[in-house]
Design goal:
The chain is built from 22 helices and 19 strands. With 597 residues, it is α/β, with parallel strands linked by helices. α2 packs across α4, α6 packs parallel to α7 and α13 packs parallel to α15.
Length: 597
């Protein structure tokens, strides 16, 4: 028996030539062997390149069972968010080679990567709506295939998914919705949906469906063990002839098969950088003299919450990613993880602010995009005292087009009453945070993903930051009319200063506040021969465009040179590779300055 098992296992080669159709001939033993091999490959590749580990380990058997029973790519499979599609990639000849690297396999489903990737999305809760669209298109065109979507128990709590579920009540098309229930979001799941599952079950159980009834309610099947391929195949068989929407409730273990990930209840292994498989420890060590803005701001809020009982912290399922674990541990009554519900997070914050509680909402830039209406209609219109900590601002690297934090300035700088700022270092971050405590209107503090130098002057008295204050970092000019003024903001400024402090005829301005613009200060720059606007944290229609327009309106007659990100989607690569490709890295800027000076 053991020799036979080993033989089967060795015959499964998961490379570019693997044909998923062979899975249909596998018996249960071979399917389980395939599961083991796929799971080990996911662990190995994530340890080499980093990636979304836990979510993918949890859906290995489910994905294999889907490929065993259904006929892909004729049938259509959508994974909600898409970052749990590693098994699907492996089974379709994409063994995670150079996962998430510039020329490697993408971390999400990607339509231009494979015909098996029916849809692609980087934000949660889009799968049911997209699947409904596919199902209607199929039936209008009189085509014959199944539509299946897999959505998590936390993603389904998002408003978009609930809107789709509501619409299913009069949806007369075949659609299989698989709810992957693992009691986890990125970290621990919030707002359990067992009551929702139960209400669905009360409508009509799949076992009672005879194929001829005219039902307006959802059909329900499950719960099914998501790691038992045999049970999954039986469940698929039951629903095969249903021409209605069906919800199949599947129970899985996030991180299944890797003990460190299985035991993780804070989200450490949801996404992880390169790590040692044996110890589970990261291989990329934080530099001793460096920290992140995320950790610095979290620590600043933690200390402020000790004495100020009117401060609260809100996170839409990014407690671990935004370094808020300590706050959530020690201030349980004033720390709220609202789940993957970004719009709710901001309206919740607005309600607090209108009743004299000061909320700090920690949210990634890419997820902030989903809250535009709440910002403009509620928070900004009412001029509420809400501080929004915009994490992952600027280029973020390997998660690709859907996660870059480069678009928020373009829409935020069109909204009345809002103030936007970004600190260049930890010392300036402290000044900006202290400013936020007493600022009585909507404030967005943006900060990038990467590490910066620690502040070694913590005991030094902090100079208060004034509203719309700009700093002159360098002023080596002989005459304004013969000189160049570089206007920028953010962490690259310190490196730029070090590389240019010997230059003549150069002035460097740090626009800590990127909006509103300090027009009084800008008037003092109108005599400069050239003004170079450098913004590697936003596309051209953000800070660069607004600053250009302001200078022109003020009557500037010199030459304006722009060094910023184009209005494009930025694909996966390291942050430096993305900067270099778009000519916004520091070295490219220095070369530009050398040409101009």
């Amino acid at each position: 028996m053991e020799a036979n098992k080993s033989r089967h296992y060795d015959q499964i080669t998961l490379d570019e030539n693997f044909d998923p159709q062979v899975i249909k001939s596998f018996n249960n033993e071979q399917l389980n062997e395939l599961s083991n091999k796929v799971r080990q490959l996911i662990i190995d590749k994530c340890s080499q390149y980093g990636g979304h580990l836990s979510s993918n380990l949890g859906v290995v058997e489910l994905t294999i069972a889907l490929f065993k029973y259904f006929n892909f790519p004729n049938d259509k499979l959508i994974f909600d968010i898409g970052h749990q599609s590693y098994t699907e990639k492996i089974l379709t000849g994409r063994p995670l080679t150079n996962l998430r690297e510039k020329d490697g396999i993408d971390g999400f489903q990607k339509r231009n990567e494979s015909i098996y990737d029916t849809y692609e999305g980087g934000h949660s809760s889009t799968s049911i709506s997209a699947a409904m669209g596919l199902a209607v298109a199929r039936d209008l065109k009189h085509e014959n295939y199944k539509v299946i979507c897999v959505i998590g128990d936390s993603s389904i709590a998002n408003g978009l998914a609930l809107e789709a579920i509501n619409n299913l009540s009069n949806f007369h098309h075949q659609l299989l919705i698989i709810i992957n229930d693992n009691d986890m979001s990125i970290s621990q799941s919030v707002g359990k949906l067992h009551k929702l599952f139960q209400s669905i079950k009360l409508n009509k159980n799949i076992d009672e469906y005879n194929g001829n009834e005219e039902l307006l309610d959802l059909l329900y099947g499950g719960p099914v063990d998501g790691h038992n391929i045999s049970d999954l195949l039986k469940a698929f068989k039951k629903i095969n002839n249903c021409n209605r929407p069906v919800v199949l409730h599947v129970k899985t273990i996030k991180g299944k098969g890797y003990s460190f990930a299985e035991k993780d209840n804070v989200g450490k292994y949801h996404f992880i950088d390169k790590f040692d498989v044996k110890t589970g420890l990261p291989l990329v060590k934080n530099e001793i003299n460096k920290t992140t803005f995320s950790l610095a701001y979290s620590n600043l809020l933690y200390e402020a919450m000790k004495d100020n009982k009117e401060l609260v912290c809100i996170s839409p399922a990014t407690e671990y990613g935004s370094n808020l674990t300590k706050i959530f541990s020690d201030y349980k009554d004033r720390a709220f993880d609202v789940g993957i519900c970004e719009e709710h997070a901001l309206i919740f914050a607005n309600g607090l602010a209108l009743n004299h509680i000061h909320p700090y909402v920690f949210i990634y830039s890419t997820f902030l995009q989903r809250t535009y209406d709440e910002i403009i209609h509620d928070i900004a219109r009412l001029n509420s005292k809400v501080t929004i900590m915009v994490d992952h601002s600027g280029l973020i690297g390997k998660d690709g087009e859907t996660h870059q934090g480069i678009y928020d300035l373009s829409f935020l700088m069109t909204i009345p009453n809002v103030t936007l700022a970004m600190a260049k270092d930890i010392s300036e971050a402290k000044r900006l945070f202290d400013f936020s405590l007493n600022y009585n209107a909507p404030l967005f503090i943006r900060y990038p993903l990467y590490e910066v130098e620690l502040d070694h002057n913590e005991a030094k008295e902090i100079k208060p930051l004034n509203y719309l204050e700009y700093d002159s970092l360098l002023d080596n000019k002989a005459n304004d009319k013969d000189s160049l003024c570089l206007i920028s903001y953010g962490p690259h400024l310190n490196e730029i200063y070090e590389k240019t402090k010997g230059y003549t005829n150069l002035k460097i301005v740090n626009c800590i506040f990127t909006y509103p613009l300090n027009l009084t200060y800008l008037k003092s720059l109108l005599n400069y021969k050239e003004i170079l606007i450098y913004d590697p944290y936003s596309i051209e229609t953000g800070f660069t465009m607004h600053l250009t327009n302001a200078l022109v309106d003020l009557g500037y007659q010199g030459k304006i040179i722009k060094c910023t990100l184009p209005i494009e989607y930025v694909s996966k690569a390291t942050i430096l590779e993305q900067e270099e490709e778009n000519k916004v890295d520091v070295n490219s800027l220095i070369n530009k300055l050398k040409e101009l000076l």
